[in-house]
Design a protein that fits this description.
Layout (H helix, E strand, L loop, with lengths): L1 H29 L1 E5 L3 E5 L2 H6 L2 H33 L3 H12 L6 H12 L4 H7 L12 H25 L3 H9 L4 H12 L1 H17 L2 H6 L7 H12 L2 H39 L1
Antiparallel strand pairs: 1-2
Helix pairs in contact: 1-13, 3-7, 3-10, 7-10, 8-9, 9-13, 10-13, 12-13
Length: 283
């Protein structure tokens, strides 16, 4: 038993250095302010949190939540049908399709986003193609459309993989039992398949929404310098402006929002487990 405890020491040290200590520093900077004349004086304050609730910054948060929500909904609407279709293929074709979905994830997100810039710009591939038909140029860069498209492209695989994992492991005998009881395909899907796949849907929503609400690379490149989401605001405070206190306060607020979102997802997941038992009992 002591040997196992010793093996945990490197992981505890790693978590402490790269997770606990940074979080403690964020909390420290968020609740303090330095007054530097000749001697640096650190004082406790809530002014950074009050500053965040200025209408300008609240609008940035609202825009971030809106874009992340739209991205998540689109990923769900596209991801669920794709995951369902893949789960019905043969084992060999399932492996091939999952490989095709995951291959783009092997490439750095920055490079993938730059590729979309070359596609969507006024002199990009899409507008050049449309120009051959006398159309355009269509303004796509530095718009909500470009940002949402970039996010959907980068985060859609997370939705597909989570839902596919649940659908591929679903007990086919439950579906056959539903057919035997007289249910058609639509009713079987609504009453059996979808309720049993909700755990994958919830996991997919979590894995898409949380990075989408805090990302800064995609909005910065596809949205332009004037397109600011909460991730860009945090980056600017730390890198460009150097206001670590306000940046830490925003980060702490976002951490609370993310933890609250994870709590809701966990609650829905628990409710879904109870619903699974109910569905299995009904069938």
């Amino acid at each position: 038993m002591k040997t196992y405890k010793k093996l945990l020491i490197p992981y505890i040290v790693w978590i402490g250095m790269f997770l606990v200590v940074p979080m403690l520093l964020i909390v420290f900077y968020a609740f303090t302010s330095s007054d530097s004349n000749q001697i640096v004086q650190i004082r406790f304050t809530l002014e950074h949190f009050k500053k965040f609730f200025d209408p300008v910054f609240v609008a940035v948060l609202w825009q971030s939540l809106k874009i992340a929500t739209i991205t998540t909904i689109i990923c769900l609407l596209l991801g669920y049908p794709l995951a369902y279709i893949i789960s019905k293929l043969s084992d060999r074709n399932q492996t091939l399709m999952i490989l095709l979905i995951t291959i783009p994830m092997w490439i750095n997100m920055l490079i993938r986003t730059y590729a979309w810039m070359s596609l969507l710009s006024d002199v990009g591939i899409i507008n050049t193609f449309l120009a051959n038909f006398g159309i355009g140029p269509i303004k796509m860069m530095y718009t909500d459309f470009a940002v949402i498209l970039g996010m959907v492209y980068n985060f859609l695989p997370f939705m597909i993989l989570q839902i596919y994992t649940v659908l591929s492991r679903m007990d086919e005998s439950l579906i056959e039992a539903s057919y035997d009881l007289g249910a058609n395909k639509v009713k079987t899907f609504m009453r059996v398949v979808f309720p049993l796949s909700l755990s994958g849907v919830i996991s997919g929503i979590t894995l898409v929404f949380l990075p989408a609400v805090s990302t800064f690379v995609i909005p910065q490149l596809l949205g332009g310098g004037g397109y600011v989401l909460i991730g860009n605001l945090i980056e600017n405070q730390f890198v460009s402006i150097g206001n670590w206190n306000f940046g830490s306060a925003i980060s702490l607020i976002m951490a609370v929002i993310i933890m609250f979102s994870m709590h809701l997802a966990n609650k829905f997941d628990q409710d879904n487990e109870a619903n699974d038992k109910k569905v299995r009992g009904t069938v």
